[in-house]
Amino acid sequence: MPITPKKITTFTFFKLPSVYWLGVRVKSISETDCTVKVKHRWISQNPFKSLFWAVQGMAAELSTGAMVMSCIHDSKLPIAMLVANNKANFSKKATGKITFTCHDGLKIKEAIQKAIETKEGQTCWMSSIGTNENGDVVSTFEFEWTVKLRSKK
């Protein structure tokens, strides 16, 4: 059974409650793309009345991580996942509804397949671009995901 936006919302409620309560939601997910939305609200703002950078980071990470989780789920193998590094750039004040989109699903699928074949850990950089309602880029995040086949005990 594929991973759906509704299943990810349930997952965040139980495992990532701050993501859930701040309103970070996966709107669509496929093999290649994932879209996550978050709205600037009082609870998610910084002192400058824009979306706090950490909330943007949560949404951006979820847009990449949901595809990592989906690929692992599809493999039906015990694979560990972890963010090793990240980079961020903020280019415009984030207000209103912000959409984070990642188009790197095939990159992580390839890394997971290589980890399965070689039985060695692999890394994969995935990017997520945050845009406002006008389509202006407000921030860009990059995450270096590590994936590794877990050893059987």
Task: Describe the protein.
The protein has 153 residues and is of the alpha+beta class. It has a single domain, classed as Hotdog Thioesterase (Thiol Ester Dehydrase, Chain A, Roll), CATH 3.10.129. The chain contains four helices and six strands, in the order ααββαββαββ. It has helices at residues 5-15, 17-21, 53-75, 105-118, and strands at residues 25-29, 34-39, 79-90, 97-102, 122-131, 137-149. The protein has a six-stranded antiparallel beta sheet with strand order 1-2-4-5-6-3. α3 (53-75) packs across α4 (105-118). The model has no long low-confidence stretch (mean pLDDT 96).
What descriptors fit this protein?
alpha+beta, six-stranded antiparallel beta sheet, 153 residues, Thiol Ester Dehydrase, Chain A
